[in-house]
Design brief:
By secondary structure, the protein is mostly helical. It folds into 2 domains: 2-101, Large-conductance mechanosensitive channel, MscL, domain 1 (Non-ribosomal Peptide Synthetase Peptidyl Carrier Protein, Chain A), CATH 1.10.1200; 103-132. It is built from 3 helices and 4 strands. Strands 1-2 form a two-stranded antiparallel sheet. A two-stranded antiparallel sheet has the order 3-4. Strand 3 (105-107) and strand 4 (114-116) form a beta hairpin.
Length: 132
């Protein structure tokens, strides 16, 4: 039981739980935005002010395809926000941090073994290498 408690108290599990809760709240905001703003705005051009009311019937079964359209629009908006607010800045930061990090090793010109930058002789082939 102590292993399970230790697992639950790890930082990444708690961070994941917080992220799920914030994501659920964000989804409600986006759903409301799509239903109350985007759908009527799209409806101006298509003539249908509320997609959630669209349906077709087959043998008495009602298929609400309008609500599906609303959910697809919500998904696309959430994906766009996540990409432009989280993924792109994080990728840019990782690239910047990798470029900023100084090199600590270089390749030996004779045997191509990785050696420290300050080395005067290769530890693998004993070739003399100039200090860069």
């Amino acid at each position: 039981m102590s292993g399970f408690k230790k697992f639950l108290m790890q930082g990444n599990v708690i961070d994941l739980a917080v992220a799920v809760m914030i994501g659920a709240a964000f989804q409600k905001i986006v759903d409301a935005f799509v239903t109350d703003f985007m759908t009527p705005l799209i409806g101006i051009f298509g003539g249908v002010p509320d997609f959630s009311e669209l349906y077709f019937t087959i043998n008495g079964s009602k298929f609400m395809y309008g609500d599906f359209i609303n959910q697809v629009i919500s998904f696309i908006m959430i994906a766009l926000v996540i990409y432009f607010v989280i993924v792109r800045p994080y990728t840019s930061y990782k690239d910047y941090a990798a470029a900023k990090q100084e090199a600590t090793h270089r390749d030996c010109p004779e045997c191509l073994t990785e050696i420290p930058i300050a080395a005067k002789r290769c530890s693998a082939c004993c070739a003399q290498v100039g200090v860069s």
